[in-house]
Amino acid sequence: MNHDEMIRHARQVLSDNDRGAYTVPTHGLYPFQWNWDSALSALGFAHYDEPRAWTEIETLLDHQWDDGMVPHIIFHAPDDGYFPGPEVWGTGRAVPTTGITQPPVAGFAVRRIHDRARDSALAGRQARALLPKIHAWHQWFYRCRDPEGTGLVALLHPWESGRDNSVDWDDAFDRVPIDGVGEFTRRDTAHANPAHRPTDGQYKRYIWLVQKFKSLGWDNTKLHDASPFKVVDPGFNAILIRACEDVADLAARLGMEEIAKESRAMADKGVAAMESLWSDELGQYLCYDRAEGKLIPSASIGGVLAAFAPIPKHRITALVRRIEELGEVCNYLIPSHDPRAPEFDGLRYWRGPVWLIVNFMVADGLQRAGEREIIDRIMGDCLRLIETSGFAEYHDPVTAEPCGGAHFTWTAAMIIEILH
Ligand code: 9WN
Question: Where is the secretion signal located (predicted)?
Fold first, then answer.
């Protein structure tokens, strides 16, 4: 497939998954709007249809909660092909949503789409309307997920991380009980190979947490302290910090002084706090288990994704070395878990496979430090994966086997982004 054909194919994927004002990640497996999928997919649309790109983010933010949270799934239209659906979440919203959030990439996406817009009048209008909402979401994070003001926010559910079954959560997740969860039927394993998906044991815990939060009325002033699962993820925090920084820059240029000042302060505090997650031993950042008060020595992509934030130059250089090291033990960068670790599983979701969206964000961060050689390797591996195995949800980093759902929106959007 040459590059023009690849772009044509990618646009077809986006168009097939387009539901008018939002896209679904893929038909069947994920029939609703997902938060970070939408923001990243908008980057793809922006290359050939800017109004459609803006609509994607507008729709997402139309469903923001009054407290500022932007939910992880918006259940626009009924579909019983996904579990857990709206009745399990019971958040009581007119258009149902889940009650947790996802990595806040929207701030980054808005700045990127704005800055390269051909229609700058539209971009200016959209950015002015969207920035206050995104800023309120960022403030919600630091208020509700960092009540002690450490500069780092905690995730209360693995689904919030976007890296649902990462090895990072294993120990903390083991402490989540499963009693009283009741019977349920998973739907994901009817659409995708069960060997590529989280286990039944993990699903019971996912659902236990949902039931717990629901019993607290989805009140975000209570959830952080009440949750037995409270993990600080360097990748997630890096995305939030980067988004705050992007909002600060763009808001300043648009004359939105207060948003600019507050966003800059949040980003600066976050960057300083990231230092507490650094591991000299592994040469990357680590997750921190806030319930137990200790770092989690797990060699996952979360600690590499930190490159997306404006971290110090010497940390970027160390992360480049870490990625080079990973490149010696697999054929396609970047594996979501170190292939040398005993927990590595090249097919199972976030326990080894390569995800193009993560590659894109890491490479984008490395660009700020001018790390050309490794960026070319990462981007080249993305293209080889798609050429070999198509627009899958994720791929085995050793064999390139396509995994999870097929015909995947954000995978396609990343190809459009990379090839422009
Ligand atoms: C739960 C939609 C989402 C992504 C996540 C990915 C997966 C959902 C699931 O799919 O999670 O949110 O049911 O498996 O882990 O990152 O946003 O593509």
Answer: none
